[in-house]
Specification:
mainly alpha
Length: 74
C-alpha cells in the first residue's frame, strides 16, 4: 500500500505505512535481516522522492551496511 501511495505522490499517506512496516520487521527479526534492509531502503526512497535528502541518506547508509554484512557473512 505504501508503495502505491508513494507512486501516486501521496507521501503523507505512504510515510506511516513505511514506518510501520520497518518497525514490524525490526521487532520480528532481531539484528540484520534482508526485510529490514529493504524496509530501510523503501523509507529512504520515499524521503528521496520528496527531496528530503538529509532524512534519506542515513537510511540508505543503514540499508547498505546491513546488506553488506548479510552478504559477507555467507
Amino acid at each position: 500500500m505504501a508503495e502505491l501511495y508513494r507512486s501516486q505522490g501521496r507521501y503523507r499517506d505512504a510515510e506511516p505505512l513505511y514506518k510501520q512496516a520497518l518497525e514490524m520487521w525490526q521487532r520480528f527479526f532481531k539484528g540484520d535481516h534482508p526485510h529490514v534492509a529493504i524496509s530501510l531502503n523503501n523509507l529512504a526512497l520515499l524521503y528521496d522522492s520528496q527531496g528530503r535528502y538529509r532524512d534519506a541518506e542515513p537510511l540508505y547508509k543503514q540499508a547498505l551496511e546491513m546488506t553488506k554484512r548479510l552478504f559477507t557473512a555467507v
